[in-house]
Amino acid sequence: MADELVDIFDEDMTFLGTAMKSQAHREGLWHKTFHCWLARRTPDEKILLWLQLRTPNKDIFPNKFDVSAAGHIRAGEEVKDGYREIQEELGLQLNKNDIVKLFTSKEIYDGGGIHNREFQMVYVAMVDVSPHDAVLQPEEVAGLYEVEINDFIQLLTGKYPSVEIEGIKRNQDNSYTLEHCRITRDDIAGHSTEYFIKAAEMVKRYVENAK
Questions:
Q1: Number of domains into which the chain is organized
Q2: How far apart are CA 144 and CA 167, in angstroms?
C-alpha cells in the first residue's frame, strides 16, 4: 500500500513531529488511526453491526474480520477527517457530521518486523443501507458483513462459540458473492477483546438512543 506522512507522538499523546507511516511501523512510533463502526437498525429493531474482512495482503491481521472502516490519520489532519476512509474503502457517502466519537484506545502490536503503536480514535455512524450497497476497495477490503450486535457481544464474552454473519465477499474480478457463514473469535482481528466489547456496547447504546 502507498506510504503516507503521519503525525507522531509520545505515549502521552504529546505531538513530536512527523514521519512516514512505514517508519512509524518500523520504529514503533506512536501515531493516530481512525476507526469507525457502522451499524443499522432493522424494522424489527435488531441492530446490525458491520464487519470488514481484511485482504490477505495486509501486514497486520490479514484475512480477519475487523472494524467497519479504518485508516491512518495523515499529518496535519483533524481526526474526523478520517471519515474519508468510509468512502475510500466502502464507497459510502457520509459527511463528517455523521460520525460521533466514542472513545480513544491505545494498542501495541509487534510481529513480522512491525512495531505498531496506535492511538485508535473510535467513532460510530448509522447507515440506512446494507453491505450489498457498498463498493469495496480492492486493495483494502475482501468482504463486508453484518452481525447482530447482541450475538457479537456474546461471541466476544465467550458465551457463544460462533455466530452467523451475512454480507458480500469480493471476488478476484471485483464481482461480489452473497455469503452467509459462521465465524468464531479466532476469525476476528487481534485487537483486545476489551476493545471489541467496549466498541460493540457503546455502538449498541448509541443506536438505541438514536430512536
A1: 1
A2: 6
